[in-house]
Write a structure and sequence with these properties.
Layout lengths: L2 E6 L2 E6 L19 H15 L4 E5 L6 H9 L3 E6 L3 H13 L5 E3 L3 H7 L4 E6 L6 H8 L2 E11 L2 H4 L4 H8 L9 H19 L3 E10 L2 E9 L9 E6 L6 E4 L16 E7 L6 H5 L6 H9 L8 E2 H7 L8 H10 L4 E4 L2 E7 L3 H9 L1
Parallel strand pairs: 3-4, 3-6, 4-5, 6-7
Antiparallel strand pairs: 1-2, 7-9, 8-9, 10-11, 10-12, 13-15, 14-15
Helix pairs in contact: 1-2, 4-5, 5-8
Length: about 375
């Protein structure tokens, strides 16, 4: 295997030479430099959450070990356990650990076999697969300590955002279609699925941080004392393709619901209805990149969804638009909260209703 040495964060890594291998599952050991953002955010979240306390983590699907090696190297109070079914990957993990002077534990096993055979409990478990994380949820959740953190990545975004509704239903048991706030809907559907799996085992999780970046979405969950109101956190999204109005309800209706414009709503979900961030926790994160900076602002706004002003302007046939910052200023002048959102370069997070937002655009 042809390797090159890189530096990411404060960590040195040997990784497959991207000039020699395609970025797909045929790569001898998978490494994606675009996922640096994912790794940066993971390190920052764990630094702030554990706050110099000792913690044990499991990098379940380690591949090159880049994420876990960075955690081990950049957070000295961590104890790292790595696993990958690929023997070449485990050799590379050991090589990277040696490069950074780290003492870590490395397993060469399939993820679920390891979790079922090794009864260890962890303060942080990372699930970052190529595709859907579903098959790893049940085995991972039971290995998470109370107050521990579960990081879940999904790269099958075409299903989650509604491009392929049948795939979304088959994998996540949620009905979906493409909406102008589809990336937040995708996160809410993923959260619902993870909570479903936890609830089966009488374990409660709450999301503390979420983000959508490039080709993937990612959510961090905290294990908490058992919550009896699980169903209260799940909703149906009623979405009108005619006037773009939407609202959430707690139950799926067998009969079609009619929008105030006269058209029928499409009923989407079920999905998670509550906050996808722990606001107080997010406030304490350092502004290490644009994504965190945007999330710190948008997480303070109490709203479900966001408005893609380009897509909405196209719907109302508005060709000339003000700059996004001017639109946000106009919303705030009306007494509402508003900010840019990390979900979309043309997205605006606000508690203003859709009709009022359209009126802002029409001016």
């Amino acid at each position: 295997m042809d390797l090159v040495k890189i530096t990411e964060g404060a960590t040195k890594l040997y990784v497959p030479d991207k000039n020699k291998y395609k970025l797909d599952s045929s790569m001898p050991v998978f490494f994606n430099d675009v996922m640096k953002l994912n790794r940066d955010i993971t390190v920052e979240i764990l630094k702030k959450y554990f706050n110099k306390k000792k913690f044990k983590f499991l990098d379940l699907l380690s591949a090159s070990g880049a994420k876990g090696i960075r955690i081990s190297n950049e957070i000295k109070t961590s104890e790292g356990v790595f696993n990958d079914a690929n023997i070449s990957a485990t050799k590379l993990i050991k090589k990277n650990a040696k490069l950074n002077g780290l003492n870590v534990t490395v397993f060469n096993n399939s993820a679920n076999k390891l979790l079922k055979s090794d009864k260890s409990m962890y303060d942080f478990i990372d699930i970052d697969p190529f595709g859907t994380p579903i098959e790893f949820l049940e085995s991972s959740i039971v290995r998470l300590k109370k107050n521990g953190i579960l990081g879940v990545t999904a790269t099958d975004t075409s299903a989650l955002v509604g491009t392929y509704p049948k795939a979304c239903m088959r994998k996540y048991q949620s009905k979906n279609m493409r909406t102008f706030f589809m990336f937040e809907v995708a996160i809410r559907i993923l959260i619902k699925k993870v909570l479903d799996e936890a609830n089966k085992q009488k374990i409660s999780l709450i999301p503390i941080f979420s983000h959508s970046s490039n080709h993937y979405i990612r959510v961090y969950f905290k294990r908490v004392n058992y919550l009896n109101n699980y169903s209260d956190r799940i909703c149906t999204l009623n979405y009108c393709t005619n006037c773009l109005n939407y609202k959430i309800t707690k139950k799926f209706s067998k009969s079609k619901r009619r929008c105030s414009c006269g058209s029928y709503f499409f009923q989407l979900g079920p999905m998670y209805s509550e906050e996808i961030y722990d606001k107080d926790f997010v406030k304490n994160l350092d502004d290490i990149n644009k994504t965190i900076l945007l999330i710190k602002k948008e997480s303070q706004i109490n709203s479900f969804g966001y408005y893609d002003y380009h897509k909405i302007a196209k719907k109302i046939q508005k060709k000339e638009l003000s700059k996004i910052d001017d639109i946000i200023d106009n919303i705030i002048k009306k007494g509402y909260s508003a900010s840019r959102t990390h979900f979309s370069n043309t997205g605006i997070k606000t508690d203003m209703k859709i009709k009022s937002f359209m009126n802002i655009l029409k001016r």
